[in-house]
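Quick bug: Aldo/keto reductase output formatted oddly.
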Amino acid sequence: MSLKSIDLGDGLHVSPQGFGGMALTAVYGGADPDTALATLEHALDLGVTFVDTADVYGNGTNEELIARLLAGRRDEVQIATKFGVSGNIRTGEKEVRGDAAYVRACIDASLTRLGTDVVDLYYMHRIDTRVEIEETVGAMAELVAAGKVRHLGLSEVTATELRRAHAVHPIAAVQSEWSIWSRDVEAHVVPTAAELGVGFVAYSPLGRGFLAGAATADLPAGDMRHTFPRFDADNQQANQVVVDTVRAVAARLDVTPAQVALAWVYEQGRRAGLPVVPIPGTRRAQRVDENVAALAVSLDAEALAALDAVSDAVAGARSADPTWVSSGRE
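Here's what came back:
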């Protein structure tokens, strides 16, 4: 199957929906590598060719898993990976580093784990506030010149940081959380990206499963969602109104809640005037089918009004550390 590709930014053509690889490692509980690979293969068969990972996911094991996909199908995939965060993101024990020497070391390690000689999109995962962004992006630009990277991206940057980075080297994409219950990027980052011709990659478009109606009241031990304020028991209860609204819209349109959440992200991109590629993650092949079907879902004015209004009812910050996301530094 083939999905019509889009120009995300800087001439980077990707599938209109990507695959978030983080879910295939043990951030939301255990994950079986063979099942994960089968899910990736199924996504690629459906035309989902834009695959997202990072060196910190599973401490490199996520990249090694995706290497198994690339081994026989590299020419079909636009692979995106990230550097800049080390430690354990599942428990919140992490640090950020963006100096030039670290950038150079990280790409070589990622290329080895991925079993490829070039990455299509290389992201700075988080900003190292101790290092000027010009130094970090300058080192990333050297990787493009060396043929190790094709395009550059930034994750969770402010509008000002994006402008400074883009002045050093064209940025193809900004990746940040964007969904019905995470709209802070619309204030500054989204308009700046649209102005500069930078595409937007929306992670957690399903609210880490919450917007899709996934049961999260009793999260398993080790599940990364324990570290997010929105998944506190009181906040989950308050946020049930968001889920109820999504479900009501889905029932009226005869689609699933996940499809409503994804269709909303696509509509926001159209309203903002920039290409948006959500990267939902899942371990199950049938969920990939459901997510891809969202490309054909159209939300009417009544649905958009209901979903836009409920965003104001969200309880809890999207990160326990305000500086970890762009809005905390704006």
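Actually, after a second look the formatting is fine. The CA atoms of residues 124 and 154 lie 5 Å apart. Closing.
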